[in-house]
Amino acid sequence: MLFAKEMKIEGDTDTYELHPNVKPYALKDVGFQISHAGNYTLERSVDPTSPYNKNQMLRVTVAKDLSGFKMATTNASGNSRVNIFKGTHAEGNVEQYHFILQNLIDREILQKK
Known about the structure:
It comes from Levilactobacillus koreensis. It holds the Pfam family DUF1831. This protein is α+β, with helices and mostly antiparallel strands. It is built from 2 helices and 7 strands, in the order E-E-H-E-E-E-E-H-E. It has a 4-stranded antiparallel β-sheet. The chain has a 3-stranded antiparallel β-sheet with strand order 1-2-7. A hairpin with a 5-residue loop joins strand 3 and strand 4. It is globular and about 40 Å long. The relative contact order is 0.25. The mean pLDDT is 92.
């Protein structure tokens, strides 16, 4: 998947884009790691009971030049996309997903379109 200017997670009604004021140090402050390719990656569990339970993950990757990003909800291994808005644990997972995204919005990394 190529880096995009805006992204929407399957099942979500909101579309997100990179904040125009995004800075590399802000990415590092919230836990983004630098990959071998130089991109910034963040992986967070959307399980509301434990951040260590990695059954379903939110993965955000920002291009090294801050020109675009990728965002997906996946299974623990990252090889399959998951719709966190469906299923028996959807309410808690969606609440945690929105909490993580709100933190990225508050830190001027993402913004709602």
